[in-house]
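FORM 7B: Structural annotation worksheet

SECTION A. Query
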Amino acid sequence: MPSSKNSLEFYMLLRQFLLGLMGTYFKFLIIIVGCFHAIAWANNNHLYILHTNNTNGTLENCYCPDHPYGAIEKRSVFINNFISEHPYTIVLDSGDFLPVTKKPFLDSLIIEAYASLPYDAALAGDQELFRENVKKLIQQLDFPVLAANLENFEQHGLSDHIIIERGGYKIAVVGTIHSNVFRFYPKDIREKYSFSDPVEATQSFVDHYSDSADVIIALTHEGHDKDIVLASRVDGIDVIIGSHSQTKLDSGTVKNNCLIVQAGKEGYYIGIVKIAFDDEKNIVSTSARLVTLTLDMPDDPYIMELISAWEQESGHINRNKSKYQKGK
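SECTION B. Predicted structure
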């Protein structure tokens, strides 16, 4: 039988051996955790913005040979897939998502389609505001529709801005409309709404949030030329997401350190903005690109149901689609 002294020495040696193993294990664990943290930070030092504009009530396009593009039926799948891959993404629309002319049933279908998409906010365009039932339509959406420079915007079910928290970043979004977008409307429509100067409204917003927000975004409904003016006159806007002029900006325009983007018309494209930050949450770069929604992209079954309902109600069957599907 070993002596108590030998037993004690054996115990001490065993203890040191086990502690050594544990030390090595914990060091290894710390290294692993550090690696995962580094990977997580590498994926969290940027933010994406998906943006759309001037959908013009287009659930799907014509399948015409000269315009072989999809619309909301493709957009829905693309956005959801993108967010699953890039969770630090916000989704915005800068207006005119309803049709150019009043079509109550189609209006309702577009609202249903937009309600099914993960938008964080949208801007009210002239095609929304000239509807008598605009408040009722907007109340069916679970995201705010903005119009900061519209007098008494709350009475129409609208908001002036939204603050979004995503990926540890604070994003301040304001929406403004230029009164000139109503210049071709009947007098009763032109006189129905009163707008303050969008430059002054945006400047006030930037002054309020420049110290607390990591990113300031302006949704505008005024046209690309006026977006250039806005960026020139207001310091501190990081991104302007424009509309109304239906301009296709493949990589955006930079003016006064502000990235100006717009994604064409009819739902042909989705815009993607990437914002990169440093360790102090300062923006170090912004970039933009457009993705074309081609006909070979997958369809959202729910949106296809809405399209079928519109075809049955209106009697307008898309013959080009049938030809395209047969030819695939």
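SECTION C. Observations
The chain has a mean pLDDT of 90. Residues 46-309 form a domain with the Purple Acid Phosphatase; chain A, domain 2 fold (CATH 3.60.21.10).

SECTION D. Sign-off
Analyst initials: ____
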